[in-house]
């Protein structure tokens, strides 16, 4: 009786491993380049500045990751940032006039809650447009982009809300601490990012909701047939994205101690770039929160490094666009290579 040799295990190509690790490779490359090309780049002071910029990008990118995993897109996050910053500025400066001769004033914690609810509310509108009215995510969020930006402009007639240093009498003296304070040597916004990042990663990997998010992006029809509440999942991801954008608006208003209605313009580009660069597939069904945060570091370091080198802001926008295109092309190449490897492994086991 002749023994039939077992099929040799099919090895994953080195190119595929490199594609999967592309975010870390990109991070190492940009760090290495700017450490030589930009003076004082690797200083403690600059590291703190970069960490603050990265945190702002990462908040938006984490929310965007969930949206893209489901096969959607959220173009409204930048406008939500501006709107929520204006809401915070209005509440700190003016409170809420009841029309009865007295004004309701909120403390810093209450203002933060209200701002978060505003962001969640805009995300809910996005989700309802997409799930109930069957509006394409691109069109729905493009529409709310303009509505939110217009509402931000209307709130002050296009003017800035200045001097948001707060008032101890109304409990808002701590408002600037959100954006400028430190805790155990790190900026408060970085600690907030850690909390949001850990919560998002836990949801994505350890909860039924996270599995449903991936299932909707992988095969929405199949997910629905298996009992997944597709509409509820989509509502959640857009509401979560709106909440992340609200945090950014609150932090920027606190950091600058001023709120301007144009805040957040083009922020959606950074969010999309960080998510895609971090391995989130634009076709849905694939993405990791950890990879997105690393992608946010790449985008943040790239932006700050270009500024330190004196590169024009116009060229920075061009470079970010190129990064998005290259990231999507690489993602498509990874998907095709993974499909070929899977077919080869299946054939080898027969």
Helix content: over 70%
The profile of the biggest β sheet is: 2 strands, antiparallel
Unreliable segments of 5+ consecutive residues: 4-8
Structural class: mainly alpha
Strand order of the largest sheet: 1-2
Total strands: the figure is: 4
Mean pLDDT: 86
Give the terminus-to-terminus CA distance: 21 Å
Strand content: under 5%
The shape is globular
Q: What order do the helices and strands follow?
A: HHHHEEHHHEEHHHHHHH
- CA gyration radius, whole angstroms: 22 Å
Helix count, DSSP H or I runs of 4 or more residues:
14
Membrane topology: Multi-pass membrane protein
Pfam family, one: BPD_transp_2
Subcellular location: Cell membrane
Keywords: Cell inner membrane, Cell membrane, Membrane, Transmembrane, Transmembrane helix, Transport
What key phrases describe this protein's structure?
two-stranded antiparallel sheet, single chain, mainly alpha, 350 residues, 14 helices
């Amino acid at each position: 009786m002749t023994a039939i040799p077992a099929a040799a295990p099919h090895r994953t190509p080195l190119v595929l491993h490199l594609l999967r690790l592309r975010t870390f490779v990109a991070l190492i490359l940009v760090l290495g380049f700017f450490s030589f090309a930009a003076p004082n780049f690797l200083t403690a002071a600059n590291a703190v500045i970069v960490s603050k910029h990265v945190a702002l990008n990462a908040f938006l990118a984490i929310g965007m990751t969930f949206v893209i995993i489901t096969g959607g897109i959220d173009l409204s996050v930048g406008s939500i940032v501006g709107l929520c910053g204006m809401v915070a500025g209005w509440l700190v400066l003016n409170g809420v006039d009841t029309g009865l001769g007295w004004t309701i004033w909120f403390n810093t914690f209450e203002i933060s809650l209200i701002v978060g609810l505003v962001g969640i509310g805009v995300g809910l509108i996005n989700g309802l447009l997409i799930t109930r009215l069957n509006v394409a995510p691109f069109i729905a969020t493009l529409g709310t982009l303009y509505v939110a930006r217009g509402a931000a402009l209307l709130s002050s007639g296009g003017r800035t809300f200045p001097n948001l240093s707060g008032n101890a009498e109304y409990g808002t003296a701590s408002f600037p601490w959100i954006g400028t304070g430190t805790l155990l040597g790190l900026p408060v916004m970085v600690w907030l990012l850690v909390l949001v990042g850990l919560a998002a990663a836990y949801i994505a990997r350890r909860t039924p909701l996270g599995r449903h998010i991936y299932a909707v992006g992988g095969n929405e029809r199949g997910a629905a047939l298996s009992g997944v509440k597709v509409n509820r999942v989509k509502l959640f991801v857009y509401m979560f994205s709106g909440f992340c954008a609200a945090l950014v608006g609150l932090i920027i208003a606190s950091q600058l101690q001023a709120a301007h209605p144009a805040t957040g313009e083009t922020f959606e580009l950074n969010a999309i770039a960080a998510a895609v660069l971090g391995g989130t597939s634009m076709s849905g069904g694939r993405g990791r929160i950890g990879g997105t945060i690393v992608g946010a570091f790449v985008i943040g370091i790239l932006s700050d490094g270009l500024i330190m080198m004196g590169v024009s802001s116009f060229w920075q926008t061009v470079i970010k666009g190129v990064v998005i295109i290259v990231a999507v092309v690489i993602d498509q190449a990874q998907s095709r290579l993974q499909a070929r490897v899977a077919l080869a492994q299946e054939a080898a086991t027969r």
